[in-house]
Amino acid sequence: MISQNFNLLQWNLNGFYKKYNELQLIIQKHNPMVLCLQETNFNDNSIGNIPSYTGYHKNRTNALRSSGGVAIYISDTLYSTQIDLITNLEAIAITIHGKEIITVCNLYLPNQTNFSDNDLVQIINQLPTPFIITGDFNSHNELWGSLTTDKRGTTIGKILKDDNLTLLNTGDNTRLNPHNGNFSAIDLSFSNSALAHRISWTVDSEIYSSDHIPIYISIIPRKSDPKHNTGTRWNLKHPNWQLYTDIIEKEIQIKNPIINNSTPEQLVTFFTNLILNTAGKTIGKSTNNNKPKVPWWNGKIKTAIKLKNTALNHLTRCTGRGRGKSG
User: Fold this and answer.
1) Of 9, 70, 22, 80, whose CA–CA distance to 42 is shortest?
2) Which of 16, 206, 224, 259 is the most exposed place for a label (fewest CB within 10 A)?
3) What mean pLDDT do residues 18-26 have?
4) Average confidence (pLDDT) over 205-214
5) 322 — alpha (psi -120 to 50), left (phi > 0) or beta?
6) Is the pLDDT of residue 219 over 50?
7) Mean pLDDT throughout 119-138?
8) In the chain, how many H helices and how many E strands?
9) What whole-number distance in Å separates Cα of residue 28 and Cα of residue 291?
């Protein structure tokens, strides 16, 4: 159940297999519940798995080699279902079912892909609310921190006039061009307006070997959610549904005389307690406090990351292209 801060990683990693070790490092660091990846470069015969996550994929099928594509990975502690989107774009959408139901949609719009505002509106109209949309849009607009607005950015800007859609970007850059050292903001995130005020959107301080920088989205739970900071969830990996059913049927049979003479309020209390107590016996809860270990982490990797950050700071000082300004 989504009873604690719901966190999501958004990243154009430009090749799942090439960046897998870095991805594992990021997972260890942030422990995201949801991964939205662009340019996975999968094909239908070679799809990458991530331990403790369930993967959903939309692969590019009209290319001579593995390229493009999007994927969403959901923590195994969450129950999720895929939405069959009607679209020609590289897009995938998943609904996460819990105490709060949230839909996540992930897109990749390469430069060679032409799209209209109607193409994106068609996707948005298929998403149950509340929803979050992530993706590499390859589009520039002053609305999200670009110095100029291009045709693609204008198309997306039209959609943002919809009162039900909110841009989550804060103006920070999300990509470093390896050829000229320019920063830009082409990785975008949206949500429906009713959800936006509970969302925190940040760009990672680290830059990895992809030219795009990871983005982290966190949804603060509603204040009315009881015990929302406990970090406990129902352990749905190995539930004993047969025992669960047997206990409930037996209790209803035993308490049948009482049930028949109860008020509606008493019935609600009885069945609520019965379900929760039975689930505690047959399903159990798990905590999410322990992050998975990364066995290949060592001092050399730590030193390499430090040197990489030093080089990045040197580049920024020499070129005057700060990460907070888009090119």
Assistant:
1) 70
2) 224
3) 93
4) 91
5) beta
6) yes
7) 95
8) 8, 16
9) 6
pLDDT in tens, 256-278: 777 777 777 677 777 887 888 88
Sheet with 53-58, strands from edge to edge, namely 53-58, 70-75, 34-38, 6-12, 215-219, 199-203
Residue 77: pLDDT over 50: yes
248: which 2 tokens? Answer: 């409930």
Burial 106-145 (b: 16+ CB within 10 A, else e): bbbbeeebebebebbebbbebbeebbbbbbbbbbbbebbb
- CA-wise closest residue to 94 among 53, 45, 63: 53
Number of other CB atoms surrounding residue 153 within 10 Å: 20
**pLDDT tens digit sequence for 268-307:** 777 887 888 888 878 877 665 555 555 555 666 667 766 7
DSSP 46: B
List the beta bridge partners of residue 215.
10, 203
- Per-residue tokens: 139: 């589009």
Burial class (CB in 10 A: 0-12, 13-18, 19+), 161: exposed
C-alpha span between 195 and 166 (Å, rounded): 9
- Write the burial class of residue 40 (CB in 10 Å: 0-12 exposed, 13-18 middle, 19+ buried): buried
Question: Do 95 and 103 form a contact (C-beta atoms < 8 A)?
Answer: yes
The helix (H) or strand (E) run that includes residue 27 is helix 20-30
Tokens of 125: 């109209």
d(CA 22, CA 54): 19
pLDDT value of position 62:
62
Q: How far is residue 93's CA from residue 56's CA, in Å, rounded to a whole number?
A: 9
Instruction: Quick: pLDDT tens for 53-63.
Output: 999 999 876 65
Cα 107 from chain centroid (whole Å): 12
